[in-house]
Fold:
Amino acid sequence: MVNMRLKGNVVIVTGAGGGIGSATVKLFLAEGAKVVAADWNEVVLEQLANNLQHQANLICMTVDVSKRESVQQLIRQTCEAFGKVDVLINNAGITNDAMLKNMTTEQFESVIQVNLTGVFNSTQEAATHMVGQGHGKIINTTSVSGVYGNVGQTNYAAAKAGVIGMTKTWAKELGRKNINVNAVAPGFIETPMVKKMPDHIITRMESTIPLGRLGQPEDIAKAYLFLASDDANYINGHVLHVDGAILM
Structure:
């Protein structure tokens, strides 16, 4: 008999249509969870729904995490469908890169709105529900860029560093409410966005990683799974690096 580590759990995954998000949705469904897949991109969300149309425990919702009303609707519809929210995975994120001297205010704010304010919006709404039910797991997606910075990513690094700060703060605030708050910091992951890069750029990225290869979306999904499971019940306020030791 297969041990389903999330059987009976209701999980919200934002940014569910991307490489990491879709891998997470598939893994969590296989582990027995009821999953609400949220994404702003209707096209990729529809593709995910079509690929998993046999899954009765999956609901796909179009959500813009930067908009409070959209997040409120996400939490409300999740509770209407499944009755609760056990796990929130703040996986949604965008990039809009430029060197500091060239970055516009619009580029900066667009990334902050999704990658930082979006995490705040989703967590505040979900945590209010979790406090009422007496338990919950919140998993935020930061990045190695938020730890050591990255050229051309002032906006992205700032947002991801902010996510780390919020994670540690919320762990202290919500831990006493039986809500665990942790973060995962991916390194260079072989997502569709990365695959579009020139080969020489990918080769250079790989050369900086002690394991000598890019990570796979499933590597991040498995980290999410561990933190969402009962195996991580005493882990709180931690940032789990999944990066092939690039920061070592």
Notes: The first helix runs from residue 19 to 30. The CA atoms of residues 140 and 183 lie 4 Å apart. DSSP finds nine helices and seven strands in the chain.
